[in-house]
Amino acid sequence: MPSKNAVKQYVEQSFYHVYNRGVEKRNIFIDDQDYAVFLNLLKRYLSPEEHKDDRGNIYESYAERVELLAFCLMPNHFHLLFYLNSDPKAIAKMMQKVTSSYTTYFNKRHVRVGHLLQGVYKASHILEDAYLLHISRYIHLNPESYKSWEFSSLPYYINGWRSDWVKPGRILELFDGTESYENFIEDYEDHKHQLESIKVLLADT
After folding, report:
1. What's the pTM value of the predicted model, to 2 decimals?
2. Which residue, among 65, 92, 78, 79, has the nearest Cα to 9 in the 3D structure?
3. Nearest CA-CA partner of 14 in 91, 95, 113
């Protein structure tokens, strides 16, 4: 029987929480370079800017089809929050390219062979705005020192960072102006049960 959130039937104009961890819970990011390579792979496929390989071939862009709303990379796992504009196969095709390229890079650099990630990534379809907000908070609160963690999208939400491949707008527009996202992140004590419920849903990662 497929594990939880392993069967992915994507629906256009929908939100998806995509996540995975290292095989046998091993670290998949050893140092800053590893984190940077993974993020650059996301940028390669999600930026509208043209990217080419060493032979001058243009990488396929998914910028019009998929939006990256939030992310957090941790030593042994990652979380990505996507909005699928169009093409039900876009997320699967893009993630296959990102994870395959990253595994090849990691194995070569760290002199190892075999699978790096624990099977195919999981993807959870998010159907409610309230749950969407809590997923974004859960993602950003993964690191213990979340405000200073370098490998999450939180600065795009609270520090005004901007890029053409990270798009927090769909999350931030859910606020009515009376509360900032930073306050929302900090005010998590009253919502620990939502965060715990998310952890239960992700328990098989």
Report:
1. 0.89
2. 92
3. 91
Closest CA to 157 of 143, 131, 142, 136: 136
Helices and strands in the chain: count of H runs, count of E runs: 7, 4
As a dihedral over the C-alpha atoms of residue 122, residue 126, residue 127, residue 130, rounded to 10 degrees, the angle is 150
**Residue found under tokens 């169009």:** 86
Tell which residue, 51, 49, 80, has the closest CA to residue 64: 49
Residue 130 in tokens: 């309230």
Note the residue count of the chain.
205
pLDDT in tens, the chain (205 residues): 345 666 567 999 999 999 999 999 999 999 999 999 999 999 999 999 989 988 889 999 999 999 999 999 999 999 999 999 999 999 999 999 999 999 999 999 999 999 999 988 999 999 998 889 999 999 999 999 999 999 999 999 999 999 999 999 999 999 876 679 999 998 875 555 566 666 666 655 4
- At 53, the amino acid letter reads D
Q: What angle do CA 168, 204, 21 make, to 5 degrees?
A: 60
